[in-house]
Amino acid sequence: MAPTKKGILERLNAGEIVIGDGGFVVALEKRGYVKAGPWTPEAAAEHPEAVRQLHREFLRAGSNVMQTFTFYCSDDKLENRGNKLTFTGTQINEAACDLAREVADEGDALVAGGVSQTPSYLSCKSDKEVKAIFKKQLDVFTKKNVDFLIVEYFEHVEEAVWAVEVLKEAGKPVAASLCIGPEGDMHGVSPGDCAVKLVKAGAQIVGVNCHFDPMTCVKTVKMMKEGVEKAGLKAHYMVQPLALHTPDCDCRGFIDLPEFPYALEPRALTRWDMHKYAREAYNAGIRFIGGCCGFEPYHIRAVAEELAQERGFLPAASEKHGLWGSALEMHTKPWVRARARRDYWENLKPATGRPHSASMSTPDGWGYTRGHAELMQQKEATSKDQLKQLFEMSKKK
Amino acid sequence: MAPTKKGILERLNAGEIVIGDGGFVVALEKRGYVKAGPWTPEAAAEHPEAVRQLHREFLRAGSNVMQTFTFYCSDDKLENRGNKLTFTGTQINEAACDLAREVADEGDALVAGGVSQTPSYLSCKSDKEVKAIFKKQLDVFTKKNVDFLIVEYFEHVEEAVWAVEVLKEAGKPVAASLCIGPEGDMHGVSPGDCAVKLVKAGAQIVGVNCHFDPMTCVKTVKMMKEGVEKAGLKAHYMVQPLALHTPDCDCRGFIDLPEFPYALEPRALTRWDMHKYAREAYNAGIRFIGGCCGFEPYHIRAVAEELAQERGFLPAASEKHGLWGSALEMHTKPWVRARARRDYWENLKPATGRPHSASMSTPDGWGYTRGHAELMQQKEATSKDQLKQLFEMSKKK
Amino acid sequence: MAPTKKGILERLNAGEIVIGDGGFVVALEKRGYVKAGPWTPEAAAEHPEAVRQLHREFLRAGSNVMQTFTFYCSDDKLENRGNKLTFTGTQINEAACDLAREVADEGDALVAGGVSQTPSYLSCKSDKEVKAIFKKQLDVFTKKNVDFLIVEYFEHVEEAVWAVEVLKEAGKPVAASLCIGPEGDMHGVSPGDCAVKLVKAGAQIVGVNCHFDPMTCVKTVKMMKEGVEKAGLKAHYMVQPLALHTPDCDCRGFIDLPEFPYALEPRALTRWDMHKYAREAYNAGIRFIGGCCGFEPYHIRAVAEELAQERGFLPAASEKHGLWGSALEMHTKPWVRARARRDYWENLKPATGRPHSASMSTPDGWGYTRGHAELMQQKEATSKDQLKQLFEMSKKK
Amino acid sequence: MAPTKKGILERLNAGEIVIGDGGFVVALEKRGYVKAGPWTPEAAAEHPEAVRQLHREFLRAGSNVMQTFTFYCSDDKLENRGNKLTFTGTQINEAACDLAREVADEGDALVAGGVSQTPSYLSCKSDKEVKAIFKKQLDVFTKKNVDFLIVEYFEHVEEAVWAVEVLKEAGKPVAASLCIGPEGDMHGVSPGDCAVKLVKAGAQIVGVNCHFDPMTCVKTVKMMKEGVEKAGLKAHYMVQPLALHTPDCDCRGFIDLPEFPYALEPRALTRWDMHKYAREAYNAGIRFIGGCCGFEPYHIRAVAEELAQERGFLPAASEKHGLWGSALEMHTKPWVRARARRDYWENLKPATGRPHSASMSTPDGWGYTRGHAELMQQKEATSKDQLKQLFEMSKKK
Q1: Sheet containing D288-289: which strands, arranged edge to edge?
Q2: Least CB–CB distance from D357: residue in B247, B248, B358
């Protein structure tokens, strides 16, 4: 961190808004550098120019946090299910730290080293085994001197608590973010109880990311806040939702939607949806406001634009944007120029262009969680027989 | 062009499939480098790293053509409606050529210098004046030695013919692509007649781009092909459609949809829609198959994957993709692994997640075209009074 | 016919608007008196009070024509596919004539005896055999002295011509209405050519009924009118469409929609849709304007209300209606009273309340028509083996 | 009641299923005999043949209860808002009793005399004044010797309790049904508390009718049942929901939907939706299962068919129906015959045919209830000035 930069807690304690970045795995999947399925971040080492560019776009859009592109970057996940890699886990973690630092130093952003849930936990390994995995990633973050740490995308608060316990040993601020909705974690622990556990474990910032749309995520963080306050504790709050409309999700989130992960396009939020999200999050008392899967740089820019008055400035990328569509004043067609106004975009319900599509799906979740045989993770690729068995199971549902 | 590379006509004459790239202005608008409204490409000079990265992503996805990022890069457009720029038109055209060449030389791609329709034509300037504008861009393309030329995004075949007449003087192959649908150009000239005019003017490749969804564009190019063949002429055919579903467009295309340009998200095509498009275009005898607004690198990859058997190879980015979702075999959840099969994705009708949105809109077009006072383009920014007048007009509709 | 009543041709020759009735089989199916599948009208004899009441409701709504409830009332159809009946065909035809006459005489309505397409034609019987069937029904209509005759719901113009040839022998006016859309009859004869054939055979009134939504039907009748006029002939025109939105039908109409016949509810037209239909039909020069399947009395009333100025009066049932919702002025809730105005209802796009339903279906038609083995009609009920075979065929599509 | 008929409590005490009828005002509005807005039942006296026929259709469909067509038949409502009538309230109430009795005696049905909420309550009249209104109706029911009494369509439990207190004096069984959803009555009293109040007031049967779709109504009655059981009381339960999908309603129900009352068509339930409703209601322990607005005879028949095994017989109207579409075995087209099976209809999500309609609306309710000036009911018709003021209010929302 440059000596002049304020740390994450300094900012939050001062009541500042901290804008997060967007989801890297989904954005880079669309750009051709991440494989859906494994969702691993080897591109940090393989294609640094692509990762660097995405960091820059989010920085330019207003992000104050460059999360290291280390999602699912634990050794057990990297080796999982037949995913062959040229680089070691440590090399990828290091490369990701370097890229985040390089871009963070081009602006007013901090570097956050992140860990996420592990296949080992799902496969019922012990806390000692799982913690060793987090520790190995932490060693890289410490060596690379990230500014703070994020425990993110955990479906089970138990595992997240283990991660917090490991990460807090580094003496840096720790944020903890679960991928849960209002119904709580996969073991049925409520958002309020989850938050209390995480704060007690040592997290200074708690919240949720991924799995649900913005309004659902804000609602869940509100429940966390109520839980923390009811327990007489204190924390800061973060939210990094999907940029997808998910009115039809069950408790396991968008993974269970039939469209996941290759046909989610029609659910994507517009920039105007983002304005509403940013305001709602701010009004809920959340001050670390970012995004996850589906967020493109312009989504983050919309968050920064909505909160421009509170923050006192616009992001760099707003030079290529007109607030509420005002840039359309320069459009060729007069009827498009007539759309250069806030009330037009604020009230528009966009058509889907999809007369054969319904607005809601029936989630597909089989309801398994940690402990169920079908969830034991394996290193070798899924065999044809296993796949055939899965297809049969899906037919019976 | 590297000595070992075959030219565009050599490829097409040999029956090869040439895969185009996607639309730069919309993709870069989302990344924060292009302003919707003016839609000008000054980022080629201002932010070359962002433009270079997008070129690379399309190359990696399978593109054989790197179009210079020179859309709307005529001097009259760059000065239009209060758009202030640091770079001259020539500087931007040159920078765009350099970036396209740099990335083209990293793979099997050609550089195509492109011109597009001008505000001067809309403002009823003479053919001499309009041609001088194209000539100025052509001088840069000649100096930078692009591999071929594209006349693209023209709503009036008359102007496109003028552009072909200028560009063919350089002695390089010329492709001509209108942004029209089955109803023809803005003066009511049918697709077949448009194509005949373009071929007679000297274009070796004709087709359409932008404004309509893939199936509508393929249908329009078929009509062009029929016209050309009926006239006893010969040509190659190209198609570069939107990556948006537009069942509700009128003859002026997606510009008139109420969602243009800031709320088009729910209309985005999935990769599976792209498979169908690529096959349909191929079956129609079109061999230059690419994309326009809304295409992201993964859309081009899907085109390349659908045509992999015909071409004999997969694109580089397919290393991060499983054909028809097979990479999901490595997904954590068993119910998502059960989706790792073609029939699942091929038949899925994705939900929109938007219970308050209809599937179709009523286009907003006021029906003006060249010659109407409201379409005269001006250099100064639209005034408040002008905007107010436009809002009043839009209310009365 | 009462001595003071003008005949159908007198009315049409004088330029009067003649309002038809709605579809009896579908309305009575919902009331519990008709069986979907056979769609036969034995209720005329079995439950005369139900049929009489429906006649009265249409009369009260503004109908000038009481069609005898004799749809599919040919002997070959009545015996078809295991349908056991207490009454003979002649008894049902006679009962239907009596009911129509009884109610017609309560107001300003004419009685029209109707015949419809036969299983015999589909089973490739000769013109002689098919004509004998129509003759038997005509004998009843002659005995009961109906006011005019309607040849209606024919998919093949050839069979309709046969019917016209039989019916015109009675010396009464003959109207001929096909259930076709803009693509023409099941043998591919265009609407214009169909109309010419029917006029040449002796029909004084031609048009279409059933199978498509109002706007599609009006469009088809326009094509008929153009054909007749181009051939230098003269005719009057009629239209009796579905009260269902069918944007997704193929040439065989709503029969092929997956929702036919038991899940068509969400497609039902509102009364406001009917206003638009009535105006469109009137503007197209059609003067015999009625309805078919899906029309309830209030739909016919809306037609009569839209054309009240041209006709000079409102129908009786308008005493229980306020034009354009004005009766809501008497509603309890003030926010509902605020809806008592034309622009509210005219512009409303009603929500479907169905988040899991798409707006369009993929028609199911297998494309068979007269001559295909699968279309040969049989008297005995479909066997289990036949059904099983059909299910297998439907799976393969 | 015929001596051999069992009373309503005998039946329910014996665990029998009692099937109600459908909503008369909406069904008769479509047939041309009721005016939307006032919604008053003068047709019982004016057009007895129409009311009798509807009773017969419900009887034939399986109804065991003929509710007197006396909805909104209190003197204060009949005089309300400029509604001019030929018959007195007493005459209408009497005519309605006679019609219900006549048809009930044609089958196994009981006559239920019904009262509904009054404008006097909304206008803040005293309990004494309101009770006098109910008493006047009760006098007719007593004279006409109905079999039991229903207090139905009350938004405020307070007024319903007053009605129960009046009606129980007659010594006949009293059922009490509110038009509320899970959020409770318009004063915020929960369904459980409402039910307790009604039982304590003397109702032997409690439940809900109208305002919400079947699943929401069943859910609300479940909450009532829990409340009653928690209070240590006993009751029977009834449910008579809308035949409309209303996922988007707020606590005031379908009145607030923008489509109410003239554009609700796309929301109509299919017969297959009714099967699910009947099963759900039965499983919830509800034994008096009927319908309200939107129910046509075939909807009630579907309820009777779903519960045929439990009841031991099919309704009369099933002679014109095939269970689960089996009558389609007799359809002309083989692809329609292929639909003659339960799984086809059970799983079909019907398309709406409405590409310009969304699936959900935003309710319009202004949130007023008893006590608000805007809800004071008046006898004279709403004036133009009042309407203009309402339109202005609706614009501001």
Answers
A1: D18-19, D288-289, D236-240, D205-209, D174-178, D148-154, D110-115, D65-67
A2: B358
